[in-house]
Design a protein that fits this description.
- The structure is a single chain.
- The protein is an all-alpha fold and 145 residues long.
- It is 80% helix and 0% strand.
- The chain has one domain: Hemerythrin-like (Four Helix Bundle (Hemerythrin (Met), subunit A)), CATH 1.20.120.
- It is built from five helices and no strands.
- The structure holds fe (ii) ion (2 copies).
- One fe (ii) ion binds next to α4 and α5.
């Protein structure tokens, strides 16, 4: 079930001034929420995920990784085209996040039950942190021009 907390997560995403990027952030958050709904139900019941749930989580994670890569590439091209001074650093931050997402994917594919709480926490935080700090920084930079 999508909760008020989930709706707030979407509402908390900073407007970065580029409509297609805002949309991508919302769509990425949508995938995260879909995974969180599943993980939340498992944790409430204090049980292990079923095989079907692991598969759904794995599919969502694949979708998240590929969609994140598309968005990151689009964002970096935009930042480079607009001569954003921190484009390279931003790209490195993206790269580190992709590595973290791949770690998450490996944990899901390895069906690491014991990591479920930790995975959930990280999953809920990474996008909002990135959008509301590093992405917000370019939005601020361009809004002053
Ligand atoms: Fe972004
Ligand atoms: Fe970014």
């Amino acid at each position: 079930m999508i909760t008020g907390f989930h709706k707030k997560l979407i509402e908390s995403l900073t407007d970065v001034g580029v409509p297609r990027f805002n949309l991508a952030h919302e769509q990425l958050m949508g995938i995260i929420i879909d995974a969180d709904v599943i993980i939340g139900a498992i944790l409430v019941d204090e049980r292990s995920p079923t095989q079907e749930e692991w598969h759904t989580l794995s599919d969502l994670c694949d979708e998240l990784v590929s969609y994140t890569k598309l968005h990151f590439n689009d964002e970096i091209s935009y930042l480079i085209n607009k001569s954003y001074p921190n484009a390279r650093i931003h790209q490195e931050v993206h790269q580190a996040l992709i590595e973290d997402l791949n770690t998450l994917r490996a944990q899901i594919n390895g069906q690491s039950d014991e990591k479920l709480k930790e995975m959930r926490k990280w999953l809920l935080e990474w996008l909002l942190n990135h959008v509301n700090h590093e992405d917000k920084a370019y939005a601020k930079h361009f809004s002053k021009m």
